[in-house]
Design brief:
15 helices; 13 strands; binds pyridoxal-5'-phosphate
Length: about 375
């Protein structure tokens, strides 16, 4: 199926091959193409909370280290979000950290394969099944990756979501929801038809709202990074409803997606070879290099954890001023949404992580100059202002 022009329709012929390939790699029963991973997540939450006994406030468990979308769209879908702390070596949740947040109101668990890394989800999937929970697997940053045992990422979740929007592996626009069972696909139809019938906002309104949401996030995160405010969750949560119309979005260009799909192997290979360049250039520095991309086969952002968290902000700023793309993804979302769920390992991770670009916007000489800049600023004693 596809959500296109604000209505649900059968998958168009130009996406047939992409659909076949995504169903084959995930073992899914059906796919729904849409405008964003957020749309897929929104439907996944609706599905998960419709199953089982009705609750006033169903809960979903989401890793603390993530882009804000999986959590903000869970709030808009009427869920309470509980945050799982992360493995300090990878930034990803584990079965143990997820378990700590379980309550009888839990309906779903979101697992995010972060920065292209993957984790074996066998035990988590079993635990979810035993507790009647929907496992939502978010592959937005790891399209085309494999688990440590070589099976395809996306083959463990009851529901799997992908993003093809700006900054993701394919950035042609769009998202997809994959449903593992025919029973789920059936249950989704009713939800999908109901929600497709409400009108969508236009692209200009969406762009302004998305910018506002991004600015709000960065403004509040900066206050927490600098420890300038004790709790920023009230302003973040209180205006969240204003952004809810951003989530259910049609796919605009199915032909562009079909075309981009064929480039995936080349795109992944190109990213992998750039990750190898960073790795060769950065080995032995005052940081730990995350190397999950080697086993997963996918590098979304080349990531490292610096040994000097107290200088992270000035370090990042100095490298940026030398003209290089660099980010610190992400700030623990529990602090923006549910500070009662303390996640100390996520905070430690966030105060160390540095992410570097491996996409089509950078080339080998650029990467060499970038690693030189990283070395230089890692050695500077005083923070530059
Ligand atoms: C980008 C991203 C999303 C949201 O994707 P959209 O297509 O922009 O809605 C969801 N989850 C993760 C992990 C992401 O990186």
């Amino acid at each position: 199926m596809i959500l296109q022009d604000h209505r649900l329709a059968p998958t168009p012929a130009d996406l047939a091959q992409a659909e076949q390939s995504i169903l084959a790699s995930t073992g899914g029963a059906s796919a729904v193409w849409c405008g964003r991973a957020a749309t897929a997540l929104h439907w996944a939450y609706r599905l998960a909370t419709h199953a089982g006994e009705a609750l006033e406030t169903p809960e979903v468990i989401i890793p603390a280290i993530s882009c804000a979308t999986p959590a903000t769209c869970a709030l808009s879908a009427g869920c309470r979000v509980r945050f799982a702390d992360v493995d300090p070596a990878t930034g990803m949740a584990t079965l143990d950290t997820v378990r700590e947040r379980w309550t009888p109101a839990t309906r779903a668990v979101v697992f995010i394969h972060l920065y292209g890394q993957t984790a074996d989800l066998t035990a988590l999937a079993e635990w979810c099944r035993a507790h009647g929970l929907t496992l939502i697997e978010d592959v937005a940053q790891s399209q085309g990756a494999v688990y440590p045992d070589g099976r395809a990422a996306g083959s463990a979740g009851d529901v799997v979501v992908y993003s093809f929007n700006r900054t993701k592996i394919l950035d042609c626009g769009g998202g997809v929801l994959v449903l593992r069972s025919a029973r789920m696909a059936e249950a989704w139809l009713e939800i999908g038809h109901r929600e497709a019938s409400s009108p969508e906002i236009g692209p200009q309104t969406a762009a302004v709202l998305a910018l506002s949401q991004r600015n709000l996030y960065h403004s509040l995160v900066a206050l927490r990074r600098l420890r300038s405010a004790a709790d920023v969750s009230a302003p973040f949560v209180s205006v969240n409803d204003a952004y809810s119309r951003l989530y259910v979005r049609s796919l605009r260009h199915s032909a562009a997606l079909a075309e981009a799909w064929e480039t995936l192997p080349r795109v992944l290979e190109d990213r992998f070879s750039k990750a190898e360049l960073y790795s060769a250039g950065l080995t032995g520095g005052p940081w730990r290099l995350l190397d999950g991309w080697r086993t997963s086969g996918v590098c979304w952002r080349y990531s490292l954890l610096v040994d000097f968290p107290e200088r992270l902000e000035s370090f990042t700023e100095s490298v940026r001023r030398d003209g290089f793309y660099v980010s610190n993804l992400y700030w623990p979302l529990n602090e923006l949404i549910n500070p009662g769920d303390r996640c100390p390992k996520a905070e430690d991770f966030a105060r160390r992580v540095v992410n570097l670009w491996v996409d089509g916007s950078v080339e080998a000489p650029w990467i060499e100059r970038c690693t030189a800049s990283l070395w230089m600023h890692s050695a500077s004693r005083a923070a530059r202002t």
